Amino acid sequence: MEKINLNQGWKLHDSPLYWQKEKLEAVRAFQDGWLTCDVPADVRMPLIENGVIQDPVTADHCLESEWVEKRAWWFFKEFELSGLSGKTLELVFEALDTKSDIFINGQYAGSHRSVHYPFVYPAGHMLREGRNEIAVRVSTGLEDVTDEQLSQLNWAVCREDDNGGKYRSDYRRAFVRRPQYTVGWDWGPRVVTCGIVGDVYLLSCGKAVIRDVEAKTRLHGDTAGLTVTAEVESLPMVSTQTCDIQVTISYEGECCAASVLKDQLLTSGMNYFCLDMEIEHPRLWWPNGYGEQPLYRISVEMILDDSSKEYREITYGIRSLKLDTSPMGGEKRKFQFYVNDVPVFCKGGDWIPNDSIYARVTDRKIEKLLEEAVNANFNMLRIWGGGLYEREGFYQLCDRKGILVWQDFMFACATYPDHLEWFRREVQKELDYQTRRLRSHACMALFCGSNENHWLFNSQDNPRWQVAFTREQPLGLYISNVLAKKVIHANCPDIPYWNSSPYGGKLPNDDSCGDVHRWHNGFMSQDMEERIEPVLYDEVRSRFVSEYGCIGPCCVESICEYMGTDKVEKSGRAWEMHCNVFERDSVYAGIRKHYIDQPERLGMEEYALYGGMFQALVLGYSLEAMRARMDCFGALFWMYNDTWGETGWTVIDYYLRRKISYYAVKRALAPIRLVMRRENDELVIWGLNDTNAAAQAEGELGYVSFDGRVRKLKPVIFKLEAASRKCVLRERLPKEDYRKGSIMFLASGGPEESVYLRIGDIRTLEYDKNSIEVLQTKQTGHYTHVTVTSRGYVHGAYVKGGYSCSDNYFDILPGEIKEILVENQEKHALHFGQVR
Questions:
Q1: Confidence band, pLDDT 50/70/90 cuts, at residue 85
Q2: I need a surface site. Which of 154, 342, 393, 552 has the fewest CB within 10 A?
Q3: What are the φ/ψ torsions at residue 57 (nearest 5 degrees)?
Q4: Alpha helices, H only, 506-585
Q5: What 3-state class would DSSP assign to 745?
Q6: How far is CA 749 from each of CA 35, 630, 696, 728, 816, rounded to the nearest angstrom?
């Protein structure tokens, strides 16, 4: 099988939206106004490149290009072909956004109406030797949705207009299989995408082709049994063929197992060959922090009776995975993942598309984000259901880096018309394609039916929608409750499935069972105190928190970049648009509670600093609190990455700069961590060990004054079993002045960090500003090793200058010695600041 790439050298023109496919020749006759581009391309990309529009992620320019969605867009590509005799040709568009008509040499080839699975067409009868042309008419698809159709859903579609998110909404999205977020969300603008947004190519096939290779694992003792299934299509319509099938499993170039099926009969159409193989002493795949991620190569070679060959290869991680939902007593049930029979506490964040114009996201941007997730001690990402199924390279990187994937199907915050046969057919094709594509990835931990659809629209939780789910009018729940389960059972029954997020218990979002989204008793509460008080997360009683969050600003450099000016004012339409819909002065309130009065008067530098520290406090404290709950088995915060720059949920901003909160999250998710809390009059310490090796936390514990003069310490050793969480100390809290000091654990140099007991907001503590002393500086390659200490307590010590560090915005306890690595290729002198 040969792939002929058609990505380069396209031209583009627009037309009135009412010009349908019969207007092909009229568009081709245009003499001027043509743009050139390569694909993947959203139509805005060449428009930006040619100065027709400004980048919609900057300032409020998104409003200036809304006209794009009110036009039809026509792509044309000419190319040469030769040597077609005896070949079967297929035209493949990996992704079209969204309503599309495809033409080959002026002939209508078909239509497509979903971005979530490819358009594949047997094109040999339309292609010819020499010059050929492909044309595509594409529009957003929103234009076809009527009020009559929306009335079938009782208009039950969440819109950010309802939350004060002006310019961000569209009921019609529920009828169109496009990325739902592109009409606008609380964290992103309305930029309704349109274009050829995936690779385009021809597949030139001989007499047979290997369509798919699937692998399944059975672990027993020190042996891995693998079943490898090769899906082979024999292309002659009426005749049989003969072939040999050879499967080889290798690791780092060394063959581990091989099997051959000789003289196999191929009948016309699909053929399936299953080979059972065993690997002794397999190298097991583990999530990040629990072990390594060895990947085997599984190669399938097919030799036909005429000696022609076909070859297909996949990488594969050997592991077992299960989701335990067994009873815990009363109405409680576990929601706990096990990998290779080891319990895994799932920790990480929720992933959204990386740009409002997602077609321009580079492979390097995805790789950088996943590198930063690993560095922050993530072992899971949840792919949110209002965006996209990510490209293949994303899942391959998750395999390599040990990031488990919770994969939502692409339905979010809306009812959907699954009572309509055409819509069910579209969704079935989508789910079938995506589950088959992803099923052999070691990273795949769970498929999930939707985001918040069961929760938001049921009549008990939200009667205002006036929705009644019935079997005759399921309004999207047929997809989650029936269709998706059938597809999973047929294609990948070993991958767990969950109906929605949140889901479980008598009503969705019940603490007793399944996963929850902690919003109305968190940052979306009507009570400002609940949004900004981290201690409330000690009250979490959920089995698995898959969504919650806190808002904070980016650094000043990013703020200037997304505002498009060096002189930023915290007012005006553009500023408001780049502040999250749910912000509602919460950052100011958080600064006021934890740091200083009158935060509205702060300059931009101070606003970014104090606002970032507020977000860091809430995320760091809350993640520790959930990890320390022995009956909670996962904590994923909203959200990890961004689609444009804003004061918002993320810890990595749109420009891939770390926010202050990134470092707090990294510390809170450290593989070995002590968590210290006050319960009534008791001091309680939990020991967390998210590794596969036993460890111990060794140091001194006791009351230390913030000036360092009072030190009532005793030596302690806490033994932490492998892959364990447990209470390691519970004792009466000593009577001390906790305005002027706290209980502290000063680590003696092991893998754990020093920690202290937080009692009260930072602004209520009485301590002087203490100087940061640099003990040693050493340059190694691109990194500067800096060792610092302080005689007294320092809050929020940071390296000035926006450097990427192993740790930053950290506290220094009195007498603590701390070493950090600073990425400092230019070997600049480093200077420290601190938050007071």
A1: confident
A2: 393
A3: -85, -5
A4: 528-532, 556-563, 573-577
A5: strand
A6: 61, 27, 11, 19, 10
